[in-house]
Amino acid sequence: MQTRKRASGTARPLASSTETPREFENADKASAPGKCSAFTLIELLVVIAIVAVLAALLFPVFAQARDKARATVAISNARQIGMAIQVYVQDWDEGFPLNNHSAGASWIDTLRPYSKSPLLNRAPGDKSRNWERPLPGETAIRRSSYATNAYLTPGGGFMTLAAISSPTNCAYVVELKENRTGDHIHPQCWPPAGCAYGGRTVIIDPKTEVEAERYQGGSHYVFVDGHAKWHRFEQTYQPAQVNWYYPGL
């Protein structure tokens, strides 16, 4: 082995060309195939926790955006129905389309020729299970998400526009409860008085007929004058206090 002298006169051995410094050995070990570093359990748990927090923050935002999109489509369709009603009323001496108790054509089918845009039978967000088959105890499938106010078609006939004291405050079309298959609601049978049927008094809970909270705690209502607007149900009806369904008010 060769030696060289220090300035002080002492000598130290020179590294042989065949010897590998320790730092090179460590580098070789780190880059050796099959010896890559892995995540520790704690690191994985931290990543999972971060993903969970982000999901918790973002999912409500996505759900809210989806609900707003549905509400936009729903109010657009409600307005189309309102405009079609106005054209129909003008064409039929101010009379309103008849509702139907049978499985035949509904009032919404009657209105189709009077609308410039297609009328949607099914409202966004309507998850009723009886579109394709009847529910237990029912004989008909669901024909529409929308229902008319039976006050305006009494006894199978129809009321004229002139008989309605305040068309802007009289609700004509509502969204129907998902477990219903008819094409109209019965405000004349709501509390407190109810209605006479089959020799007895029948009182119907209005929220078993009206889908009252589908869109952010409210729903869309089409009025006799043709305009459509979002309201909370309590704004439209409270027994013996508020009744936007009775055409004489």
Automatic annotation (TrEMBL):
Main subcellular localisation: membrane
Keyword Transmembrane helix belongs to the record: yes
Gene3D superfamilies reported in the protein's UniProt record: Glycoprotein, Type 4 Pilin
Region (Disordered) residue spans: 1-30
Protein keywords: Membrane, Methylation, Transmembrane, Transmembrane helix
InterPro entries noted in UniProt: N_methyl_site, Pilin-like
Subcellular localization, as worded in the UniProt entry: Membrane
GO cellular component labels: membrane
Transmembrane segments: 38-62
Domain of life: Bacteria
Membrane topology: Single-pass membrane protein
Database matches in Pfam families: N_methyl
Protein name stated in the entry: Prepilin-type N-terminal cleavage/methylation domain-containing protein
